[in-house]
Predict the 3D structure of the following.
Amino acid sequence: MVSRIAAQLETVLRIAVADRRRRISTISLLTEAERRQVIDEFNDTACAVDTATFVEQFERHGCSCCGSLARSASKATSLLMGPLVNARISLLVTYVPAGWFLEA
């Protein structure tokens, strides 16, 4: 760790002496290999995006949560609230204006 910091300081000082008008803030502390690693490897954060609508995602999530909660709350009766949640979501979608959830 100390040797790396010393190498970075040496690089900054060497560049600063070679070009006295250059701002210190424009001197990179990373080697080209480290820079490539940050840009290519560490920045590789691509992930799959759900293309379902908000309502479809809400229905899916609401049904799965309520159903599992009901099952764990009473294993003897094994209440499944999925149909009840679907009915409530349908009412919500019916009475809430279409653009209400979207930013203007």
In short: The CA atoms of residues 53 and 91 lie 17 Å apart. Residues 74-79 have pLDDT under 50 and may be disordered.
